[in-house]
Amino acid sequence: MSDLELILKPFPGAQAGAWRRRLWTLLLLGGPLMGALGFWIHEHSARGPGFRVDIDRAEAVRLAHELAKQKGLGTQGWREHLRFNAEPVTERYLRTHELGPAARVRRFLPEATVTVFLMRQDGEQWMRAAFGTRGFATDYRVGGRGLEQVPRDVPEAEARARAEAELKEWLGGMAMRILGEPEVTTADERDLLGARRFTWRLEPRNAREVELVMRVDVLGGRVVGRSVQPVFAAGFLEREVTLPGARADVLGTLRMVLVLCLVLYAFYRYARRTMEKEAPHARVLLLAAMFVAVSLLLQLGNPDASLNTLEPAAVRTAFAVFRLLLAVLFAALVGCVLGVSYGAGEGEVRESWPGRLTSLDAVLTGRVWSANVGVSVVAGAALAGWLFGLSALGQAALGAKMGAQAMETAAFTFGRVPLLVMLATVLLGAVTTTVLCLLAPLTFLRRHVRKGWPIALALAAGALLMGGMSQRIEADQ
After folding, report:
1. Which residues, 6 or more positions from 349, have their beta carbon under 8 angstroms from its beta carbon?
2. Number of Cα atoms under 13 Å in the Cβ half of residue 139
């Protein structure tokens, strides 16, 4: 028996015809080629207009220290926290408006930002800066007790002159039209009480349907903060954000109703299997424990990802421990729900397709180097290549872009341990998708639908509807 026949044997079976073996040969050999095609399409046609990431975690932290030094703040030895933030509205704007990758206004309209928070070891002073994916600072703020010694009785004219100089340096000669005089208010943040806030509204000359609201905070004669906020035209928001968002909300509601119904039915079937003494309690607990372990790995690999904002109270040790406990509890709850759904559907799979879970059984019994496990890994990789390639072809044919997926992938690189975060996220996604899109639906369909092709259609429709559920669970970790 040839090596290829040895690889194919567990899947088409010993009595399979020649056509089925050819199909599996095509699947295995074509998987890497389809994966490479998908990456090529993603790189050249579906990634989004001009989107690129020129910095990583180390570079973002270096830029933050350098910015602090320029502002006269020594931050060496301070605690470092970092969070990647996607900007979906801005990404959609850049997708629908041709600005060109070299346009200066793109610096103030990043598809994503990287927020770096530096805090002194005693927690008494901090600095927060946000950078676009090309390294340009879009936000800067300092706070803490060190600002108490800054004189606060500086005349407004002097403070405005300092703010205007900061704005001019920040804009760097970008073509724009300033809309009126700046609005002068007093910052209400606790660390900036008494600081004058100068707010300008600017209209870029080469960017339609957007204004830039730029703020500079001056405390005494020192700039202690600056920020930019894009304000998009109502027509653009209605056309590109509100209507798609409404459709997404409808789909999200349908998805949640479907998941709830499937989970409730799975709990019912699991209770029946428990009464029949057939429920795999050990595997349910194993799946829940796996979810908890992977959630802990995600927290350790990227502890700041679950924070909404980086601020002194949020990064303190006590709050970090509290967040870790919440993540463990949430992961345990999700793991138990998915475990019960798996346990309810496992019997249907074993009953309808004998031998299809032998690879899982081999892993759980410690036979990780068996032929069944090896063939499953090879076939799974091949199927992933086909799926990614076909998905990329479909999106390219429909003119869709992969900006959101590209930003999700870029976010991995800003964790403390990027490879660990990526592997943990992929594992969570694989388990969640398998249970919600296959085992839970099969629990219902195999009991109430007898023919094969309606089951396949129902599984495909359910998979399309619940396509975003695994990503949402991963994000909540």
Report:
1. 356, 357, 439, 442
2. 21
- Check residue 323 and give its pLDDT: 80
Distance between CA 89 and CA 236 in Å, rounded?
10
pTM value? Answer: 0.79
Strand pairing category for 176-178 and 137-144:
unpaired
- Tell me what the pLDDT averaged over the chain comes to: 80
Per the CB < 8 A criterion, the answer to whether 204 and 175 are in contact is yes
φ, ψ (nearest 5 deg) of residue 242: -65, -50
Backbone φ and ψ for 250, nearest 5 degrees, come out as -65, -45
Judge residue 449's burial from the number of C-beta atoms within 10 Å of its C-beta, 0-12 exposed, 13-18 middle, 19 or more buried: middle
Quote the CA–CA distance of 374 and 390 in Å, as a whole number.
24
Gap between the Cα atoms of 355 and 336, Å rounded: 25
Using CB atoms within 10 A of its CB, is residue 321 exposed (0-12), middle (13-18) or buried (19+)?
A: exposed
Give the CA distances from residue 143 to residues 199, 289, 302, in Å, rounded to whole numbers and listed in that order: 19, 41, 25
User: Under a CB-based contact definition with an 8 Å cutoff, are residues 87 and 112 in contact?
Assistant: yes
* Alpha helices (runs of H) in 276-315, residue ranges in sequence order: 281-301, 312-315
The string of DSSP letters for 307-339 reads -SS--HHHHSHHHHHHHHHHHHHHHHHHHHHHH
Are 113 and 87 in contact by the 8 Å Cβ rule? The answer is yes
Q: Cα–chain-centroid distance for residue 360?
A: 29
Angstrom distance (rounded) from CA 226 to CA 216: 4
Q: What are the tens digits of pLDDT across the range 253-295?
A: 888 888 888 889 889 888 888 888 888 888 888 888 888 888 8
| pLDDT digit string, tens, across residues 323-341 | 888 888 888 888 888 888 8
Beta bridge partners of 178: 202
User: How would you write 399-419 as a 3-class SS string?
Assistant: CCCCHHHHHHHHHHCCCCCHH
Residue 48 in this model has a pLDDT that exceeds 60: no
Please name every residue paired with 119 in a beta bridge, in sequence order, or none if there are none: 79, 126
Look up residue 231 and give its two tokens: 């304000």
Residue 82 has pLDDT above 60, yes or no: yes
Tell me the angle at which helices 281-301 and 418-434 cross, rounded to the nearest 10 degrees.
Answer: 150
Rounded to whole angstroms, how far apart are CA atoms 316 and 324? 12
CB 156 within 8 A of CB 184: yes
DSSP 111: S
Phi (first) and psi of residue 208, to 5 degrees: -85, 160
DSSP string for 82-136: EEEEE-HHHHHHHHHS---TT-GGGGGS-SEEEEEEEE-TTSSEEEEEEEETTS-
Q: Which pLDDT band holds residue 248 (cuts at 50, 70, 90)?
A: confident
What pLDDT, on a 0 to 100 scale, did the predictor assign at position 78? 92
